Amino acid sequence: xxxxxxxxxxxRLCHVIKRPDFEGFGFNLFAGKVKxxxxxxxxxxxSPAEDxxxxxxxxxxxxxxxxxxxxxHKQQVVQRIKAVxxxxxxxxxxxxxQLYYAExxxxxxxxxxxxxxxxxxxxxxxxxxxxxxxxxxxxxTAITETNGSSMAPPPKSSLKRVSSxxxxRLCHxxxxxxxxxxxxxxxxxxxxxxxxxxxxxxxTPASAxxxxxxxxxxxxxxHNVVNETHxxxxxxxxxxxxxxxxxxLDPEADLYYRERDIMVSSSQSNVVLIK
Length: 275
Description:
Layout: E1 12-17, E2 27-31, E3 38-43, H1 48-51, E4 59-63, E5 66-67, H2 73-82, E6 87-93, H3 95-103, E7 116-119, E8 135-138, E9 158-161, E10 169-174, E11 184-188, E12 195-200, H4 205-208, E13 216-220, E14 223-224, H5 230-238, E15 243-249, H6 251-259, E16 272-274
Parallel strand pairs: 1-7, 10-16
Antiparallel strand pairs: 1-6, 2-3, 4-5, 4-6, 8-9, 10-15, 11-12, 13-14, 13-15
């Protein structure tokens, strides 16, 4: 493959940095028994690893810039992670992305133009509380569209555990130049309720800010937009000059919360901040 298509799954370069408030990086490795390679096993809630974007099931491609291939789990890979004190950089790909590149015989590297760079923030993201089993109460009301027609309300009020749920991503996207765009397109899918990221241009603020094709938009600049129109969402994105904050869910996470009638919010404990 000579060029990476703009809609190709994005590998993630996760810069995991230890913090005083958490012991260790907060993730475990496991080696696949059926397939070769090293994978992320468990990611602890509220850990530097979670805040840097690591997810269970991610396959590790590089450690601190070195392609690990099928290196031994206990010896070489762990040693590479420990080679730099208090931090490590892992290039990872989710299972869907791994399949995509394997089918096309493409070797994933950190030099690919669509790599998303993520890192542990210096300050832990705001959480409901510091308990790993915190609860989120979501109360929602019906929204009326500007033309006066009643729209379906978000999922009903519910009390659900969110500590082990898939992490929503709060993508803070900042323009690199005032005369340039963010580098993403919106998509309204007629077969599904909601608004989605239709295209993410490579090497743009959107790609650097962690947006992915297929993400469902939940909030724009702190406002829930689940039942808003395309025009309203665009206006909210433009309401803050040269930057915007989008709370999004990938398809797997979207399905998880829909099945459990949980209303996602940027205030819940497992939101990953990407900037």
